[in-house]
Structures are given as C-alpha cells and as structure tokens.
Fold each of these.
Amino acid sequence: MKQIEFAFIFLSLVSLVYANNIDIPILIGSEDIFRASPAEPNISKTNDKKKEKIPVMWGGNTLTQEERLINGFQMKVFILGGGAYITHKNVKLNAREIEVIGEDALIGNLKGQVVVEDKENGATLVASKGVYDKLLGTVTLENHPVLIHKKDGKTVRISCHSIVRYLEEARTVLSGKVVVTSLDFQVFGEDAVYFEKEDRIDLENEPFLFSENRFLQGKILSYYVKEGSITLEGDAAIYQVSYEKGNENLEESRKNSHEDKNKESVEKEKIRILSTFSGDRLVHKNKASESFTSMKGNAFLHREDSEFKAEEIESTRNNKLIQARKNVTYLDKKNAYRMQGGYLEYDKEKGYSFLSESPRIFFLDKKTLEEKGNLASVFIERFDEKKEAVARGNVNIETQTAKATGEFATYFEEEDKLVLEGNPTLVRDGTKVSAGRIILFPSEDKAVLTDGLKVLNDDKKN
C-alpha cells in the first residue's frame, strides 16, 4: 500500500513540473559528479573553492533582472542602477550602472562614473568603465583610468591607458603611457606595476623623471611612495641645473651700475651650472632630516669646470657630505690639477676634502690640461676657502726635469706654487740637494731652494 502511495505522489509532482514548465536545478554533490567543461568561461563552475568563498555584496537603488545567453550558458543578469555597488571583501566598486552576471556576482560590468575604493591601502581608482572578475579577484579599468594613492600625508596620482587591479594583493598593473605625479616630481614611462603593500612603483622601458631643476632617466625606475625614495637601474643619469655665485667680472659690473639697487642685484647674481651624473645604479632616499643619494658602478659627475669619477659616489646630509670610493678621480679644469686615490671625502659646509689610499695630485697646463708634474703622499687635504691642498707623509714630487721628497707639502692653486717642507730634498740632473724649504712651480718646471741649501751628492758627469 505504501508503494502505491509513493508512486502516486511522485507522478503528481512530475505532472506539476511539466504543467508549469519549471526547470529542475542540477544538484552537484560533494564528489562534484557534474564537472565543468574546459570550454566553459570563467562564469561557470570552478575548482578554486577558496575564491568561490570570497564574500561579495552588491546592491543599488534600482534592480532589473533578466535572462541572457552568455557563452552558450543561460545566465541570470541583475542590472543595478542609482548608486550601484559591489563589495569584494574590503574593496568597494561603485558605478552609475552595474550588470551583475550570476547570483554570486561572478562578473560585474561597471558603466559610468566608476570608482574603486580600497581604504585599507589608501587607494582610489577612477574610470568611465570597468569589468569585475570575482574568480580572478581583479577589476579591469579602461579609457584612461586614474589611480590616486593617499598614505601618510603623501598623495600620488597615476594615469595610464588601462589598469588591472588585483584586489586581494593590492597590486596594480598599469599599461600604455604611464604618468606618475607627486608633489615633488613627475615620472613618464610605459607600463608599470604598483605594489601598494610595499609602497613601490616599478616602471620599465627607460622611464624619465622630472623635478625642480632636475631630470632623471634609466632603464628601470622604482619609486617608494612612503619614503619618497627612487632607484634607477641600468644606465642611470641625472641632469641638473644649479645656480652658484660668480666672482668673475664682478668689479666691472659694479662700475657699470649707477644705483645702489643695481649694485645689490649684481652682487647677488648667480651663474647657471649644468651638471650630469651617470652610472650603473642610482639610489635616492628622502629621510626626515636629510637626503641620501648614491651612484654605484662607473659613477661620473660632469660639469663645465670639473669632472668627478669613481666606482661609487655617495651624497648624504642633504648633499653636504660627499664620499667616493675606488678609482677616485677629480679634475679641476679651472685650477688645472687632477686628484686621484682610493677614497675621497668632501664636507661642503666646512669646505674640506680628504683624499687617501695612494692619493696623488697631477699638475696640468691651464690651456691644454697636459700633465706637467705630480705629487704622491700618504693622504691629501684640500681647503676650499684658501684654495690650498696639503699633502702629508712620505711626499714624492715629480716635475718634468726634477724629483723631490719631503714630509709634507702645500699646493697654492691660484699661484700654481708648491712648497715642500720637512727635510725636503731635490734631485735634478743627477745632483741631490736639500734645504729648509723647496718651492716648485710645476707648470714652469722651476724650483727655488731656501733656508740653508746643501748639496748631498753630485753624480753629474763632466
């Protein structure tokens, strides 16, 4: 009797279903008997169950529901309007209208006034249209979108041709012509990746950076937003314009000035200097109280009046302390000398330089810059204000026709005069002499001996 009742109930249910044309849903068990075909799109079932569990909410002021055939599948489409939104975990996607594909919001087509808000990472993206993919965890924005990043009181604005943002990774891939703008500079390049959790933007394809009186370029540029730091990899170069006080023709300019105001303006007049700084890798960091700049690998600083080379040149204390290491060479064209050694330290505030590790000074012809003599010692100091260089310890001097030794020597740059002291000796034409002081003029190949001349030997053959 029970079997007859069960059969009757089953037939009644079947008749009801066919009479009302209701689609019976496919039930998928725990063993996933009905597996999705590989040809099905992303909006079909997926094996990534972790991404399926992503909490998504969506809504709006108006809702329209319809059925559509999408990639061969009959799907429910919900059209949201008037303050439409989708939330992907802590990220909120806003638009004037959103088409939600599937009840689980597997795909969302965002149309008009698109705004993606990631408050946790301080990022806001703005575009005219976009596509949200729940399974991939991405939102793709087209038609020149803009990313605005605000964190720790700093704002960075990035515009490009298109954006793919990975919502859970807080990573943004920017394609096409990329422009990064901050309060201090602008960066221009093509294709970039923004790692927001690391506060780093990477730009490839030889981007270039503009700031006040400065232009930077390299093969790869990384900008650290929070620190305001920059790294340039591969053929890094800085082109900088600075203004320095000029002393030449100052008196003549004063004579031509007829008013006190004109005289004052002439005294304050500065000369425009163009400097280029190149190398393999540049690192620039902005800290709370000072900045740090380092050029590593074939570092080369060029100005019209000087050249500076080393394996590494490092600037600290807001460019007030400069340190150079390995194969250091400094050429002063104006005063016609070249310094070289293994380590150089320059304190700009004190106007003091220290050169060590086999230091040498080469004395040059002022017109041709050809070598006229050289000096070697244990270490060399230079004083900007006096325009003097002091060599200490085992000093050896060579000119075109003579050699001299002593304990220390002072080089007066403006006079091209070298004063050797501390048991100095001079050898010329086989004759060795000593004196209290020996004064040499390297460019003229002339020597003056004072304070007790003594001939130590005379090997000259008659």
Note: The first helix runs from residue 2 to 20.
Amino acid sequence: MRTLVLTFVRLGPTLVYAAGMLFAASIILLATFPGNPLSWALYLTLLPVLRLPAFVLLDLPGVEVWHVIAALAFIAACGVYFVTQPKRFIRARFFHAHVALLALIFANTGAHSAQAVGLGLTPPGEYQWSLPIPTTLLGTALVTLVALACLSTHADIIRRILRA
C-alpha cells in the first residue's frame, strides 16, 4: 500500500505536465471546432490551472502549439520513467517536481483574482508575498500532489545523505 501511494505521489508532477499538454491540445480543438461544447469545457477547466505557464511558452519566438504539446509529452514521459526507477533518478525527480511546483505557483499568482495580471515588473510595495491558493479543485489537487512529490524527493535526498 505504501508503494502504491508513493508511486501516485511521485506521478504528481507528471500529471501537471500532462494537464499542460491537454491545455495546449484544447487550444487546437478550439481553433478547429469553435462550436464544440466539449472543447470549451476542456479549455475552461484547465484555463485557471495552467494559463500563465502555457501562454509564456507560446509567447516564445518560433514556438507553436504543436511544439508545446510535444515538449510537455516528452517531459511527462520522462516523469513516468523517473517514477519507475525512483532510487536511480533522485536529482532528476527533484528538478522535475520543483519545476512543476514553480509552474503551478506561477499559474496561481494570476488565477486567484479576477483582474488581469501582467508578466512585467510590479511597482514596489504592490507584490503580495503570500502563496496564492488555487481557485479550482483540480488546481488544489495538483498543488497538493506536487508539493508531496517535492517532499518525497527531499526525504529521499536526506535519506541518501544519512546513509553515505
């Protein structure tokens, strides 16, 4: 039972990258089928969870939606491979989980309020230093899973240091 729970927790960052891939795919679905309610439902479900990271990737010069889907699919596949061999890839799991956590925190900084958020510099004194809580159940579940995955990698690193 412990192994199953740890495997599910370690898959948390992979679920974030898979959700980002689905969000990018929903953009293509909306462009292809703008009247389809299922494409709108998928897009609007994932919009508050991964809006800013996906749009930052799409704003890079020369990057199209297909590139983002391929990159996120590759990163998610790497995450599944890391989970299958947890003792071997501790540093890669650490990086994988913390990048997913930073992406979710970055996404939630703009999603917790109804106002538009720019990516530029904020005037002094206007930045809130509290961690924004996700507004959706999916966002809360992903942040919880990824935070637990980060704690798991920290515990594995500490355990490895103590054994050495």
Note: Residues 1-113+130-162 form one domain.
Amino acid sequence: MILLATTVACGNESSTTETPVKETTAEAATTDTKADAKTESNTTDSAAVQVDETKAAELQAQFQGQPSKVVVASVAIAEILNELDVTPVGVPTSTIALPEKFKDIQPIGSALKPDVEQVTKLQPDVVLGPESIKDSLEKQFKPASLKTAYVPSDSLEELKLSTVVLGRVFNQEQKANEFIASMEQQEKDAVSQAQGKTAPKVMLLFGSAESFMMMNENTFAGSIAKKLGASNVVTDVLKSEETYLPLNMENVVTANPDVILLVSHGDPEAAIQKFEADVKKNGAWEKLNAFKNKRVQALDYNLFGVASIVKASDAYKEMLGLLYP
C-alpha cells in the first residue's frame, strides 16, 4: 500500500495498496556541527523559529535565488506555499483537497507519477517535491532537464522546517514565522491538556482491510501522538528504527498497546473489523489492553491521511481526545 502523504503519512495523495511511501524522510544529523546547529535560530528576525540551521542551509542551497515559476508535486508542500502567499503554476492531482486558491491551477498528475510533458510545458524555474520520493521523481524529471528541489514533509517537525526554509527562499520569512508561531501556540495548548495524565502506549496503523503497516513517531500521526506524551510501541517496545513496519500479530501481542489507532484510505470500519478478526485468531487477544478497554479506533483520514501543517491544530484535538478520553 502506498502512503498518501508522506509520509502520511504520511506519504502521497493517490489511493493504492502497495508499500507505504512517505512524502519525506528526515535526514539524521551525524556530526557535532549538525547537533550544535539544532539550537541555532535565524538571527535576521527576532521572532524567527528555531530550526536545525545546518539542515535548513542544505535545503535552501538547492535553490538558485528566488524562483518565480514553481511546480509543486505534493499537497503538503502546496499548503505551505499557500500560507506563504506563493502561487505555483502547477499542482498535483489528489483525492485530498488543495487550497481553494489553487483550484484553477494546471494539474500535473499524481505526486508519484507526474505528467512530465505537462510539467515541461509550464517552464518552471523549479519543481518542488517531497524529499522521501526524491529518487523516484528524479528518474522522471532529470531526462527532461527540469530543475528540482526537495523538502521534508512527513512529520510535523519536518513540515515546520520546510515552512521556514521556503519562507526564506520566497522572501516570506515573516509570514512563515507568524504562521508557525500561531500553530505552535495551538500545539502548546493541546500539550498542556495532556500534562499530568498517564501516557498511554499507542500503536498507529496505516492501511486498509487488505493489509496494515505500523507507523513510528516520524510520521505525521506519530509526531502528533509523541508531542502529546504517548509512547509509540514501534520505537519504545519493539525497538525498531523503521518508520513503517509490517504488521504481524506477534508484535501486537508483544507490544500490548493501550490504544490502537488506524489511518485507513479505504472503509475505516471494514479495516478495523478485519484487524480485529486477525487479532482474535491469536489466543492471547483477550489479554490485550486496547481490546479489553475497547480502544481500537479509526483516525480521520482527512486529518491524518496526508501530513498537513495547516490541519495540525485539528489533528491535535482529535488525537488528544483519543489518547486521553
């Protein structure tokens, strides 16, 4: 199954059921310089958001000046451009609604399989895509000699970083900082409501009735749950560093999550019923906390199906209610 978002969720925006593909994967800082840079902030603006400046500089270096014509191959990134008052000349086709202002802009096909001929006709200064599918997109754009740039957009923290970077690229730093400051205040309010409460162990699933994958905290839903204090069983119990981990019933029993939340791009009720039926085939299912306490639920696909910084406030509200009912 291919994650519509990126990863959501996470991943891309066309509905299919193969391997999940995130829209972005954060690059880990591997040197002392990168680690130190995480505490730096953009000193040109006193209200600037603190980001990993080494990573930000690497991303910004992809651009040669300020592009005037941009094609965007991601709904998550299109939403950021909209907040920065940047209008692209081409946008992806998606089941997820694009900003209203972009409704009449030339579609370029799906994020995974854009219409390269159409993109070329638009003569963009740069094609802006999600970092996690860079290799796939480069194979399509490079033969057409199209200038490309890629930013991370899978987890909420990655979306914040990309908003800051694109604000600098398009000379809209104030808009970027004001938008993130507003979002972070809403985030702070949500986090404060979770403080002092017992943090649950959560298992986050992505899929349909046909198949499921477990998601760690580097996905959109995972990053929201982590910020609210929940323990993600993929990271904390199963000790896996994989962003997406194939589901097996042994892992469900071993992890024994307090809450199981599913992001389904199909019928969520059918997906939950199928998951519950699979778990019940295991003799230990009645001992699982999430099942004993009836805490196996579906997340709103419109909020969690694709990573979205503009929907973060609503995503926090829904996740808060499910983790701390």
Note: The CA atoms of residues 70 and 88 lie 5 Å apart.
Amino acid sequence: MKIFATLIALGLFFTTMTAYADKDIHQHKSLEIEQQSLLPRVALTVVRDESDGLNLSIDIVNYVLNSPAVAENVQQSLTGHAHLFINGEKKMRVYGQYVHLPASWFKAGVNQIAVSLNSHQHENWTWKGNTVMGSVFIDLADPQLVLHQFSSQPLLSHHHH
C-alpha cells in the first residue's frame, strides 16, 4: 500500500511540475510544423559535473540549433535556439548542444529540466498544437540521478508486434 501511495504522489508531482514548466513555455507564440517529415526530435541527457552541478546534452534531430547571428547562413526552415527551464523558470537561451547547469539552480529533492525549441522570433515550434520539447526529472541526492525522461518526439522508436 505504501508503494501505491508513493506512486500516486510521484504521478501528481510530475503532472504538477509538467504543468508548471508548460505554463512558462507556452507564454510565447507558437509556430506550427506542417510536415511530419520535418518534425524535430529532442532528448536530454544529464551527467554529474565533477566540480559543480550537472552537464546537459541536448540531442536533436531535424533541427539546426544556432545563434541568430548565424541563422541567415543556414538553408533550412527548422532552425533556431532553445529555451532552458529549471523547475518551470526560464534560465537561458541555448545556441549549442552542451550546457553546464550549476548546482545553485536546483532545490533539494526532485527537479525538472526542460528544453523547448524556438524560432529566432521566439515562437515555440509546435506539432499538432504541442510544443516540441524534451524534459528530464532529476534528484541530485539520488545515486541514479535521472528519475524520468520525456521527449515530445523520441529520438529512437522501437515497434514491437
């Protein structure tokens, strides 16, 4: 019974945290992706940094992550930057794959790291009304570190029949 109560509590926590991050992410206008073949895929990988906090890798397919200064040189419609959120609070724009996350950005217990893809006009890229994003729930005190991962479009899909 205790395990069941814990699972319900975690489910409510993750739902609340997702809604919290989602609120901040959705404060931007959206830009709908029209062709499924162009749909970007986002996955986040975090590892502990030896001296402080975490190192984040943003793995993306079908998207060019870059600075507005070089965007004109790219001949691709799906290009832009990313927005990094910690526990629903926007921390920074991201122009590359790797980001250091200082420990001071995290609270004790479970934290959410979320990354949304944005045009250089700050519109959220969306597919069927859903923001293209990746998210990971972590606990710095847990030896496992990563508690749950989410991607609006997985990098790899495995079909089992």
Note: Residues 2-7, 16-20, 155-161 have pLDDT under 50 and may be disordered.
